[in-house]
Design brief:
The complex is a heterodimer of chains A (about 250) and B (about 240). Chain A has about 250 residues and is an alpha/beta fold. Chain A contains nine helices and eight strands. Chain A has a four-stranded parallel beta sheet with strand order 3-8-6-7. With about 240 residues, chain B is mainly alpha-helical. The chains are: A alpha/beta (about 250), B mainly alpha (about 240). Chain A: InterPro entries: Ribos_uL4_C_dom, Ribosomal_uL4, Ribosomal_uL4_dom_sf, Ribosomal_uL4_euk/arch.
């Protein structure tokens, strides 16, 4: 029973000097005689009421999903892309940032904060603090009141307390290498999130996704996608001797 | 590995947090940007070999970055302090960027020129008088105005003045009292008689307060006082006020 149809309204037809929209029957209340049922009526149902059985899910091939995953991981290693996404990595010593496995054993948030500060990742978290604000629009009254930026992503191999240490720091997400999530690696559909890898997590990447020389050990028959161009500097290629020699003179 | 073309195609088409787009121009908010515009050749993110001229606290530096250092964001910029002599600074730029693209040399020189120009202008302005521009926020301004009006009403200045004058009257600073036209006097008396008799001195004084502002009022009060005196003393009073 959807909203807007809980009336037994019928049109009065022609001849009554009113519009032909169905009107509520009966009498004795304000509601009687008011228009009903249309998307234009007050208290009527909306146009094309949205249904829960809309096709929400999309089937995407495994290979395509892995391609996206692998591209997102690659993007996190490019300081340009990470900076363009807005992360404050100007002071970070190296990108990709790989940290010793001791981080996995951290249990106190204080220690976690100290670790981020030592690796100069804290400015990114400060940016998250500054970005806390209320969502504009009706989302506020639909349980989506507050929004904030995304901060660094910590990728670990074995959780020995790490998730709980970083849990309460705003913006920071933690994720296991085995279960990398594209929604965390490329939030908003934009590649280049600032990632902090633990040593063992970083080493696992080879066996997870393969190198071009070797197949992946964890994913059956999977190898990294072959690039379309081996040398992507198109401008330089076009200016090179070999190509210039073969071109005809400009008219 | 990082490739400039790929980076640029992603930044340009998709999202760059430093890009600001207006109807006619694309600007780059990155602090190391050479021209301030968002374009393929001046994007510091899309060119691993990059140079800028920046000024910090009046000192001009040449910043350079090469592909070798591209993956160490903390150490990527090499800083060369430029001489305060403009010609020497130009030479320094040419020396340091000797095998670089013409674009960088040219733009660095232009930027150096602009920076030195604005620095000299700043120094000149500091020598002269400076008007400090204080922006007034409209909301704040209106709020203050409204509060002023309310404060004016709340202060009840009239009442305060009355009290003051009456106090002075009581203290006797006004030795002599003026003569007032007769009619107004009579009118006043009639009005006073209509009101209930006052016995408290305080109320007595309060009513006096109400009438201090105008001559007529003063005389009315005084007349009333006189009446009271008469009633008390049972002395026949004149219409002239007598204090």
């Amino acid at each position: 029973m959807f909203s807007g149809h809980q009336t037994s309204a019928e049109s009065w037809g022609t001849g009554r000097a009113v519009a032909r929209i169905p009107r509520v029957r009966g009498g004795g209340t304000h509601r009687s005689g008011q228009g009903a049922f249309g998307n234009m009526c007050r208290g009527g149902r909306m146009f094309a009421p949205t249904k829960t059985w809309r096709r929400w899910h999309r089937k995407i091939g495994v290979n395509q999903k892995r391609y996206a995953m692998v591209s997102a991981i690659a993007a996190t290693s490019s300081p340009a892309l990470v900076m363009s996404k807005g992360h404050m990595i100007q002071e970070v010593p190296e990108v990709p940032l790989v940290v010793s496995d001791k981080v996995q054993e951290l249990s106190k948030t204080k220690e976690a904060v100290l670790m981020l500060k030592k690796h100069r990742a804290w400015t990114d978290v400060l940016k998250v603090y500054k970005s806390k604000r209320f969502r504009p629009g009706k989302g506020k009254m639909r349980n989506r009141r507050r929004i904030q930026r995304r901060g660094p992503l910590i990728i670990y191999n074995k959780d020995q307390g790490l998730t709980r240490a970083f849990r309460n720091i705003p913006g920071v997400d933690t994720i296991c290498v085995e279960k990398l999530n594209l929604l965390k690696l490329a939030p908003g559909g934009h590649v280049g999130r600032f990632c902090i890898w633990t040593e063992s997590a970083f080493r696992k990447l080879d066996s997870l996704y393969g190198t071009w020389r070797k197949e992946s050990r964890r994913k059956k028959n999977y190898n990294l996608p072959m690039p379309k161009m081996t040398n992507t500097d198109l401008a330089r290629i076009l200016k090179s001797e070999e190509i210039q020699a073969v071109l005809r003179n400009p008219k | 590995m990082q490739s400039d073309d790929i980076t640029w195609s992603i930044i340009n088409k998709s999202f760059c947090s430093f890009k600001i787009q207006t109807k006619s121009q694309k600007f780059c908010r990155n602090e190391f940007n050479l021209t301030g515009l968002c374009s393929r050749s001046s994007c510091p993110l899309a060119n691993t070999q990059y140079a800028t001229v920046r000024e910090e606290k009046g000192v001009i530096y040449l910043y350079m970055r090469t592909a070798e250092r591209a993956f160490f964001p903390a150490k990527q910029w090499e800083k060369v302090k430029l001489s305060r002599n403009f010609v020497k600074a130009l030479q320094q730029i040419d020396e340091n960027l000797i095998f670089w693209k013409k674009y960088f040399r040219q733009k660095c020189r232009q930027r150096l020129l602009k920076i030195t120009q604005y620095l000299t202008r700043m120094r000149k302005i500091k020598l002269g008088r400076q008007k400090k521009l204080v922006p007034i926020q409209r909301k704040v301004d209106l709020r203050i105005k409204r509060r002023e009006e309310k404060a004016l009403v709340a202060a009840r200045i009239d009442n305060a003045i009355e009290k003051q004058l009456l106090q002075r009257l009581k203290d006797g600073t006004y030795e002599r009292i003026y003569n007032f036209p007769q009619e107004a006097f009579n009118v006043r008396i009639d009005e006073e008689e209509e009101e209930s008799e006052i016995e408290d001195e305080e109320e007595y004084e309060e009513e006096k307060e109400e009438e201090v502002e105008t001559d007529e009022d003063v005389e009315g009060e005084l007349e009333k006082e006189a009446l009271e005196d008469e009633r008390r003393d049972e002395v026949s009073g004149d219409n002239n006020c007598r204090y």
